[in-house]
Amino acid sequence: MIFGIGVDITDIARIQAAQAKNSQFKTRVLTIAELAIYDTLAPKRQAEYLTGRFSVKEAFGKALGTGIGSVSFLDIEVLDDPLGKPVVTKNPFAGQALVSISHTDTLVMSEVVLERGTD
Prior knowledge:
There is one protein chain. The chain is of the alpha+beta class. The chain has a single domain, classed as CATH 3.90.470.20. It has helices at 12-21, 25-29, 32-38, 43-64, and strands at 2-11, 77-80, 86-90, 96-103, 107-115. Strand 4 and strand 5 (107-115) form a beta hairpin. Helix 1 (12-21) crosses helix 4 (43-64). The radius of gyration is 14 Å and the shape is globular. The N and C termini lie close together (10 Å). InterPro entries: 4-PPantetheinyl_Trfase_dom, 4-PPantetheinyl_Trfase_dom_sf, ACPS, Ppantetheine-prot_Trfase_dom. Keywords: Cytoplasm, Fatty acid biosynthesis, Fatty acid metabolism, Lipid biosynthesis, Lipid metabolism, Magnesium, Metal-binding, Transferase. Mg(2+) binds at residues 8, 58.
């Protein structure tokens, strides 16, 4: 049964500006495992990756119905499976979290669906 759906659209330039202004921004958004991947990427891909993870975590908060604030960015982790599909590997929700991320040159869009089994 679907518990919640969250969608987010984030401007890549806005996240790049936040990172440029505060070099610790990425450590507030990315978990240690996500940060390890980020550090291996070229600058353009870093911007897309950071924005994508930021967007997913915002969408997760919306799907949860609380927004970011009752959960932190670091409570949610999204890593790619061997085929490159993003998978929520860590989160505070007692159920399944499904995610999709897409981007253009300037925007990232993400969607999160939270599911619980029927009792």
